[in-house]
Structure formats: C-alpha cells, structure tokens
Design a protein that fits this description.
The structure is a single chain. It is built from six helices and five strands; from the N terminus they run E-H-E-H-E-H-E-H-E-H-H. By secondary structure, it is an alpha/beta fold. The structure holds 4'-phosphopantetheine (PNS). The site of 4'-phosphopantetheine (PNS) has 9 residues, from strand 1 and helix 4. 4'-phosphopantetheine binds next to strand 1 and helix 4.
Length: 169
C-alpha cells in the first residue's frame, strides 16, 4: 500500500446469501487493485427473501475474510449513495459466464447514469468458479448435494445447518 496519496477504496456489493468461493476469488483479485475493499451486503428490509439474515451473512464474511484491508458492511437504498458515503471510487463486480453480462451491463450503466464519477470494475472469475452462484449452491445444498469446494468450509457447515432447520419447520 503506497502512502502519500489517497487510498483506493472499492465497494464489492451483493446479496452474499451466502458468500461463495467465487466471491472470495473476486475479492482476492480486487485486493490486488484496491487498497481497501468493502464487501457490502445490499438488503431491503421490506422484502428480503434471503436464506441468511444480514447479521448471519456479515458474520460469515468476517469469518472467511481475514485481510485487514477488507471491511464487511450492509446497506439498504441505492448502491451509488452507499459508495459515496463510503468515500469509495469504484464498484467491483465479478463476471462469470456471458449470461452475467446483460444484467451487469444494465446495472453498471444505470449506476453511471446516477453517478458518472463512480466506475464499475468487472473482474473475471477464475474458471474454477465460472458456474458457482449463491442461488445454485443453496439449491444443491437444499436437495442434499455436496457443496464442498464451492463455499468456504465454515459457510458449508452453516448452510447445512440452515437448510436442515428450514426443512424441520
Ligand atoms: O449479488 P447480487 O444479488 O447479484 O447483487 C445485486 C446488487 C446488490 C449489486 C444490486 O441489486 C444493487 O446494487 N442493489 C442496491 C440497490 C440499487 O442501487 N439498485 C439499482 C442498481 S442499478
């Protein structure tokens, strides 16, 4: 980290329900570019259909990201407002298959429309994580499939506990 200049801060936003190894890969790559990365859970108190609560998700992110240059946080409302409040200059998003592009492009352009000075930086996920998504990981775990290697071990254990609890309800 250089001194004598402003630190480069990025926000890595998402649902992180839960954080996967794909997210961790993007986070590690973004730390090569930025001095500090804020992993920011976007939530909507009125209609949050997530499996894990915001606090559970924050705890998991903190457990699996040990770098002092990573901060876990949560926000509601517009991402660009949060980026501004955080004094960050960029939004980091991961890109996997081509299928991600349309949705990501729309969001990036909307965010640019709202705040032209905030850049969205896309980072390519490693091939190993091209098909990893929180949605699929949850589905596989719910249906009894093995998610080893797709999420950090601590997350895997919490996910199994959560889906078992959900089934028992
Ligand atoms: O992990 P996800 O669910 O693909 O992340 C989507 C996220 C959280 C980045 C997006 O929904 C978002 O930015 N939400 C905050 C609300 C907002 O700013 N919406 C307008 C985005 S163009």
């Amino acid at each position: 980290m250089k001194s004598g200049r402003e630190k480069r801060v990025a926000v890595f936003p998402g649902s992180f329900d839960p954080m996967t190894n794909g997210h961790l890969d993007i986070l590690e790559r973004s730390l090569e570019i930025f001095d500090r990365v804020i992993v920011a859970i976007a939530f909507n108190a009125a209609k949050d259909s997530a499996l894990f609560s915001v606090d559970e998700r924050l705890e998991m992110i903190r457990e699996v990201t040990r770098s002092p240059r990573v901060v876990a946080d949560a926000f509601s409302g517009l991402l660009v407002d949060y980026v501004e409040r955080s004094k960050a200059s960029a939004i980091v998003r991961g890109l996997r298959a081509v299928a991600d592009f349309e949705y990501e492009f729309q969001m990036a352009m909307m965010n640019r429309h709202l705040r032209p000075r905030i850049e969205t930086i896309f980072i390519m996920a490693s091939e190993a994580h091209f098909y990893t998504s929180s949605r699929l990981v949850k589905e596989v775990a719910t249906l009894g499939g093995d998610v080893t290697g797709l999420v950090p071990e601590r997350v895997r254990r919490k996910l199994l506990r959560k889906v078992t609890e959900k089934k028992a309800r």
